[in-house]
Amino acid sequence: MNSALPLLLLQFAYRVRSQELDFTVTFNAPAGNITICDQPTYVFGDATIPLTSGTTIQTGGWFTQLEPTVSWTATEGKLYSLLMMDPDATYCGAGTYLHWMNLNIAGSDLDSGNVINAYAHPAPPEMRWHRYAILLIEQDDEIVVDDDEIAELQGRSSFDYLAFMSAHDVAPSSELTIDVQLDAFIVQYYDEGAYCSFPESCSLVS
Q1: Which residue, among 146, 182, 174, 162, has the nearest Cα to 95 in the 3D structure?
Q2: Rounded alpha-carbon distances, angstroms, from residue 150 to 30, 35, 120
């Protein structure tokens, strides 16, 4: 399922819990510049972008290119899983796209988790804003994934997050979101080419 409605319901349903866990996500970007498409050079300043519950931040790909800093207040004996996904990646049949998945984190030590998908930065290939949801799951037991499910998850496309949570009997405890739009960094990521026209559809990346 790729409806936007469940995502919004999750955001509001778990807002109070998010405050209890003190879930924080902060994007940090360096200063730099990019020249593309024979246009004037795009100059980016360094930036620190903290996400907060109930606030929508809109930015470009440059500022989300690096894995964000993530922290939360862990409960002793609990495990945690971290997911980041784009529910708006339906522009060419990709469905919800899984950008990051780290399962069964002990406490708040991210290095202790099972990284199914390393962080993949947002790269929406169109001027439409895409929402990126970062979810934290608090667990009593491990999420066990077999080889077939791992292979499917590592495909990243068409991730059915509701089916995943139902299958493993878990639910998000916290959610933070950020909106990202195509910018010079993303055009360069797609190797320019016809992207110099800043397309409105997926035809140039399919």
Answers
A1: 162
A2: 33, 38, 17
Scan for tokens 């050079």, then name that residue.
Answer: 41
Tokens describing residue 195? 């992207």
Phi/psi for 180 (5° steps) reads: -130, 140
The rounded distance, in Å, linking the Cα atoms of 164 and 167 is 5
The one-letter amino acid at 91: Y
Q: How do residues 176-204 score in pLDDT, each as one tens digit?
A: 999 999 999 998 888 765 556 554 544 44
pLDDT at 19: 43
Tokens of 185: 């960094």
The per-residue pLDDT for 205 is 41
> In sequence order, which residues have a C-beta less than 8 Å from that of residue 111 and are 6 or more positions away?
none
Residue 137 φ then ψ, to 5°: -110, 130
CA atoms within 13 A on the CB side of 61: 23
29's CB contacts (< 8 A; 6+ apart) are 44, 46, 47, 48, 49, 62, 63, 64, 65, 66
Q: Domains in the chain, start-ordered, CATH in brackets? A: 4-197 (3.90.280.10)
Is 163 a residue whose pLDDT tops 50?
yes
Question: Tokens 């993303």 sit at which residue?
Answer: 186
- Rounded CA-CA distance 100/81 in Å is 10
Q: Are 189 and 118 in contact (CB under 8 A)?
A: no
